[in-house]
Amino acid sequence: MGAIENFDIKNCVAGSVTETFRTQLSMEMALLQGEPPPESGIHRMAGALHFAGKVTGIFDLQLTADFGRILAAGMLDMEPDEVDLGTDVRDLIAEITTTIGGRLKSALNDAGLACVLCAPSITCGTDFKLKSSNMDRFERCVFRKDDHILIAEVGLKAGEGTETDFDLSAPDAMNRTPNMDHSILNALDYQGNVSGTVIDVFESMFLMKLEAAETISGGSLTGMRDVSSVCLAGDASGTVSISVDSELSRRMAANMLGRQPEEIEGADEIMDILGQLGSIVGGKLKSALAEAGLRCALSAPFFTFGSNFKIEALNLERYEHFAFQVESHTILVDMGVKISEPAKAAPDVGKDILNQKADSGAGKTKPVAATQPAAPAPEDFGLEILLDIPVELTVELGRTKMPMRELLKLQPGSAVKLARLEGEPVDILASDVLIARGEVVVRNEKYGIRITEITSRMDRLKGLK
Fold this sequence. Notes:
By secondary structure, the protein is of the alpha+beta class. Helices cover 29% and strands 32% of the residues. The protein has 11 helices and 20 strands.
């Protein structure tokens, strides 16, 4: 834990927030001392980013919806009442959160606390609190701009005991193509692995038998709710969130601990129980992905408590939603997952699925191995005559969007901010076709690119024009 104790969280976060707002939003944020004022009943939005690896934890950025409108309006050259909370403000908060979280991740890696970032999420509503349990370090920074308050929070926990499927300390750990079995991945039964595990855990740990709910009444979702979430990062990014009402979570804790519900005091015991639930379900999904050859790290569980809020996981490709009923209580399970681009480019070892069976009891998928003919050589496509033709390579550092009025203001010496995080690989294109990614290196005062990821030979040849 020594590295976490010595890591200067507050100055790292404060510097990243002020720098990001200055460069991206042309706005100076003042760092305040003390706790922020209460904001109960005010429409708020929070962007959250989670770490997994040798250090695990959460970074979140909280602000009012009105302040979010002002920020988005400045970026889009619009009036605050013209921007859309569900798209414009959400996307801006996600971008700022990812930028600051990426800088925090880089600082942690430099301090020997290797980790990877999970997909961001946005929580919005008028009554919610974000919580992280059993963190080794926690810091909160409060900023002010005019009458508006911005809160940045970081919770970190040593994760030396966290099981990972790859060496996080390697600089290109996330750029190596995994040894992936597509037949298993394509046959992966997300419903069986996630919802089946939830049913098993409720019965074995909490002595409750769940029934699948075909419909959900609006009344079952009112009142205080407790949400336990975990995230995956690596070759696959993902999230699993389990939502129960506060009365049921207290009963779950009581059943687990052999007490009466009224004997459960405070939120710590409830968070411990819900955290175990989230970790078990998320771990099941991680194991299923690992069987397909995808290396992942699992974040520590984190929690959202309140009576009026919505959580939206971003930048994922496949979403699944499950609902269960026990007596008058409703349990909601949300899952999202995305396979990384290097993993998608992994050589196929069997795309055709001959059989797919799901063991409903254990939630396991049992695919039958399939074979696929070897890919034909370049000669089979008649491309050998093209191999000596020179091709111009282009390295794309990043892209950005700006209003036309800002474009017209550009002149020699102007700086253009690119939509790419520090430390992310640059794209290498041949005739506008992506063929590889790499990192910028400097040798003898000259720039170059060290390739860290490359597409398959056939994809490169097929893309040339």
